[in-house]
UniProtKB/TrEMBL annotation:
Family annotation (InterPro entries): G_HFLX_dom, GTP-bd, GTP-bd_M, GTPase_HflX, GTPase_HflX_N, GTPase_HflX_N_sf, P-loop_NTPase
Species of origin: Balneatrix alpica
Swiss-Prot/TrEMBL keywords: Cytoplasm, GTP-binding, Hydrolase, Magnesium, Metal-binding, Nucleotide-binding
CDD domains: HflX (cd01878)
Keyword GTP-binding: yes
Listed SUPFAM superfamilies: P-loop containing nucleoside triphosphate hydrolases (SSF52540)
Function noted in UniProt: GTPase that associates with the 50S ribosomal subunit and may have a role during protein synthesis or ribosome biogenesis.
Quaternary structure (record): Monomer. Associates with the 50S ribosomal subunit.
Hflx-type G domain sequence ranges: 199-366
Species lineage: Bacteria, Pseudomonadati, Pseudomonadota, Gammaproteobacteria, Oceanospirillales
Any Pfam family: GTP-bdg_M
Record localization: Cytoplasm
PANTHER family for this protein: GTP-BINDING PROTEIN 6-RELATED, GTP-BINDING PROTEIN HFLX
UniProt protein name: GTPase HflX
Length: 446
């Protein structure tokens, strides 16, 4: 029902009104990209401005007449508003325009329905569709009366509208149960990665910022990437190897957008949990976009809504090839830590700098030192070799083994505990506060 779409584009009249309230203002260019991504064919754009929305039609009566004239002139099949409409406004507009009317939320949901590929993705989209539709059912059933009684005609005693709402509630309840099962499965996978000491890196950013292209470049993957809004809907995970870090799980997630419908965020809670529990976020930004700062703000609002503001973040300014006099480079803070990387995923420029920055942030606890091991500590020596951490070996006059090692401090502390060797002997402390959040389940954390 939700995922079948006609092959040919529908003729659409677009409506965009400039609101004087900056919080309610939308971008007309982005709106046209949304319409194109949905597969519709824009035939006319009706613009205007208002102080406040009209309670009955959102637009004024004169503007509604202008929209109706455009619908008749172009034989349009649907009118798309670049705003959130109430159910009553949609019904009133459809009655006046004699064609389907869809608001910005419905348009985004339609795009998501087209992009969903996995079973989980379809469940999440269907949940958002049903919850959005539940307030608009009266539009389709105003012609039906209460079911009549009599022999062969007795019904449940409720209107068709009430029946459909009850069926919708039952379907929504069923999907919630299925998605809860998906959430538990994802939690189990994350716990397994934490036990295996595998950090996770999640790509986030505004839609069409180049996340999937960057994901493919880093992970040598074949994730669908296109120059359109919401090209990626279903999350994708890949395991990659980074120098000095080892295996890392890289996650590509759905893009964000300004005024992303709250119900959509709720429906995709299981998917967005990958972002909340990541070790590091890569916030991908279209560096060449004229709306760069507004897009940054929109993404930060969604990250705040899902509770991901505490996760360490590395800014990735993508599409540097479209800028003049800007070369790929790393921006660092006052402590020398990477805070932003300028790259071009499509041209594969600066990817080595990106991997370097990720490795630096994930291996802040890296131990690179020369250890003096006593003769009776051969077990520790063997484990260091098995870990591939030994760079050079020599001996001193007292018969101690001198090993130049390079490995995670957390791994080394774990080896010391296994061999019952005090960490203080090597100038290390074995306390909870030294543990990164994603290492909290490891045995050396008290």
């Amino acid at each position: 029902m939700f995922f079948e779409r006609p092959n040919t584009g529908e003729r659409a009249v677009l409506v965009h009104l400039d609101m004087y309230d900056d919080a309610e203002r939308e971008d007309p260019t982005e709106f046209q990209e949304l319409v194109t991504s949905a597969g519709a064919t824009p035939v006319a754009l009706v613009t205007g401005s208002r102080d406040t929305p009209n309670p009955k039609f959102f637009a004024g009566s004169g503007k509604v007449e202008e929209i109706r004239a455009a619908v008749l002139a172009h034989e349009a099949e649907v009118v798309l508003f670049n705003h959130a409409l109430s159910p009553a406004q949609e019904r009133n507009l459809e009655r006046e325009l004699q064609c389907r009317v869809l608001d910005r939320t419905g348009l985004i949901l339609d795009i998501f329905a087209q992009r969903a590929r996995t079973h989980e993705g379809k469940l999440q989209v269907e949940l958002a569709q049903l919850e959005h539709m539940s307030t608009r059912l009266v539009r389709g059933w105003t012609h039906l009366e209460r079911q009549k009684g009599g022999i062969g005609l007795r019904g449940p005693g409720e209107t068709q509208l009430e029946t459909d709402r009850r069926l919708l509630r039952e379907r929504i309840k069923y999907i919630h149960k299925r998605l809860e099962k998906v959430r538990k499965q994802r939690d189990q996978g994350r716990r397994a990665r934490r036990r295996a000491d595998v950090p996770s890196v999640s790509l986030v950013g505004y839609t069409n910022a180049g996340k999937s292209t960057l994901f493919n470049a880093i992970a040598n993957a074949q994730v669908y990437a296109a120059n359109q809004l919401f090209a990626t809907l279903d999350p994708t995970l890949r395991r990659i190897l980074l120098p000095d870090v080892g295996p890392v799980v890289l996650a590509d997630t759905v893009g964000f957008i300004r005024h992303l419908p709250h119900k959509l965020v709720e429906s995709f809670r299981a998917t967005l949990q990958e972002t909340v529990e990541a070790t590091l976020l890569l916030h991908v930004v279209d560096a060449a976009s004229t709306e760069r700062e507004q897009n940054l703000e929109a993404v930060n609002l969604v990250l705040t809504e899902i509770g991901a503001t505490e996760v360490p973040t590395l800014m990735i300014y993508n599409k540097v090839d479209l800028l003049t006099q800007v070369e790929p480079h790393i921006d660092r803070d006052e402590n020398g830590k990477p805070k932003a990387v300028w790259v071009s995923a499509q041209q594969r420029l600066g990817l080595d700098l990106l991997q370097q920055a990720i490795a630096e942030l994930l291996s802040e606890d890296l131990l690179h030192d020369t250890l003096a091991l006593k003769p009776q500590e051969g077990g520790l020596r063997a484990q260091l070799y098995a870990q591939g951490a030994v760079l050079q070996e020599s001996w001193d006059e007292e018969g101690n083994t001198l090993l130049e090692v390079r490995l995670s401090t957390a791994d080394f502390l774990q080896m010391l505990r296994r061999n019952q060797i005090p960490a203080e002997r090597f100038g290390l402390r074995q306390q909870t506060e030294t543990c990164e959040p994603w290492r909290a389940s490891l045995e050396f954390c008290e």
